Amino acid sequence: MTDAVVSLESGKKSFGSNQVLKDISLTVNKGDVLAIIGPSGGGKSTLLRCMTLLETLDGGSLAYGDLAVATDAGGRAVYGGKQVLAKAKERFGLVFQNFNLFPHYTVMKNITDPLICVQKMPKEQAEARAVELLAKMGLSGKEAMVPCELSGGQQQRVAIARALAMNPDVLFFDEPTSALDPELTREVLKVIRDLASEHMTMVIVTHEMSFARDVADRIIFMDGGVIVEEGPAEQLINNPQHNRTKAFLSNYANN
Amino acid sequence: MEFGVMMGILLGGLQLTVAIFFITLIGALPLGVVVALARMSRFKPLSLVARFYISILRGTPLMLQLMAIMFGPYYLFGLEMGADWKFGACAIGFILNYAAYFAEIYRSGIQSIPRGQYEAASVLGYTKAQTFMKIVLPQVIKRILPAMGNEIITLVKDTSLAFVLGIMEMFNAAKALAAREVSMVPYAIAALIYWVFCLLIEFVMNKVEKKLDYYHD
């Protein structure tokens, strides 16, 4: 357990009378690549949003390494103070489905501004890191452009660079290619594959089954707010045990 | 009366018109932010007060508001405000009134910023204040420029309402000249000057819009 980068215990979340997460427990260890698959409305995105503090858990506990973010007190999740949350945010990054780059900032400033503004990094150092990461994303020479001048695939790679620049322990992806056509999807998936081969710890919500199988060590199948099945990637995709998983995966038979 | 003398009197009035214009902007632009934030506050009583404020100031004539502020202190509290109070009353009236309109424009702009911008900023660790100042506000400014241009041009012409307080701004000066000369020419000249003033504002607003045209979303 010492390697756990993030762990969620008995996470529960409801919107009104609709219980979206029913007692979910999940641990991600250093170097893990975890894919979360499942039908829309099954709770995948809510799970990710709870883990990235965009939503608050109703019940359960959440920890980033040795940092307890939320603790369970009699079935209710009690969150730490502002400083705890700020510290937790240094430990993870999130890549959104629709990128959410800052449209009024250049590519360079999208990456450097959080470093300068949040991590108090000197400007030169932040820019050097941005240039390096953009090169890694295949985006050298785009520094001075603004997001609207880039393709969706390029924007998503800038978003990945922006998240990586903060040097997170774990990087979450919320359907990172759902807004992209197949060609642009491929260039984004390649970048994520490269990160996996460098043992970046990642949690990826995706509808790309073959990608999930190839890149993830472990896959979770979620439906109806519970983890229906969990296992090694190859096994869960090629040889699912639960009927619900089988039914879901049969939709992707051609993949 | 010689044309030059007439122009001199009108331009003298223009100085007061310009003063009312800028004092209103200086006061109402920031006050509008406060009112807008109060209006959007999740603290219900504060939001209700802001709604009431906006409703009253938009729902009654500015001319009446100016008179209420001018004469209110005497009729309500028996206070003698002195001869210069009309300038204070004028500034307060215009600022309070325009802040209400600006607040609603700000609100429309702030609420048009996608949630994803706030979420991205939150995940990256920006504080609420940083998110507002660095991420939200610059995008809001671009979005509300056309509506603000409209409102600011309206302000140029609304300054003429100061005449009800006996302030000798340009409209009042034109009115006095027209009465004395039994001529409509002073009004025509005043109209021309108002229009040139508005042209200048259009020019500046266009420049700013062009400057912010480097991105779209």
List keywords for this structure.
heterodimer, A: 255 residues, alpha/beta, Rossmann fold, 6-stranded mixed β-sheet, 5-stranded antiparallel β-sheet, 9 helices, 11 strands, 36% helix, globular, B: 217 residues, mainly alpha, MetI-like fold, 8 helices, MetI-like_sf (chain B), transmembrane (chain B), ArtM/GltK/GlnP/TcyL/YhdX-like (chain B), transmembrane transporter activity (chain B)
Q: Write the CATH homologous superfamily of chain A.
A: P-loop containing nucleotide triphosphate hydrolases
Distance between the termini of chain B: 57 Å
Pairing-aware structural class of the strands and helices of chain B? mainly alpha
H and E string of chain B: HHHHHHHH
State the end-to-end distance of chain A. 35 Å
Mean pLDDT, all residues of chain B: 93
The CATH topology of chain B comes to MetI-like fold
Major protein interface: A-B, 26 and 20 residues
Q: Which blocks of ≥5 consecutive residues of chain A have pLDDT under 50?
A: none
Number of strands of chain A: 11
Unreliable spans of chain B: none
The CATH first-level class of chain B comes to: Mainly Alpha
CATH architecture of chain B, by name, is Orthogonal Bundle
Annotation, overall tally of beta strands of chain B: 0
Write the layout of secondary structure elements.
The complex is a heterodimer of chains A (255) and B (217).
Chain A: E1 4-15, E2 18-29, E3 33-37, H1 44-51, E4 59-64, E5 67-73, E6 76-79, H2 82-89, E7 92-95, H3 107-117, H4 123-136, H5 152-165, E8 170-174, H6 182-197, E9 202-205, H7 209-215, E10 218-223, E11 226-232, H8 233-238, H9 243-250
Helix pairs in contact in A: 3-4, 3-5, 4-5, 5-6
Chain B: H1 3-39, H2 44-59, H3 62-77, H4 85-111, H5 115-124, H6 128-158, H7 170-181, H8 185-211
Helix pairs in contact in B: 1-2, 1-4, 1-7, 1-8, 2-4, 3-4, 4-6, 5-6, 6-8, 7-8
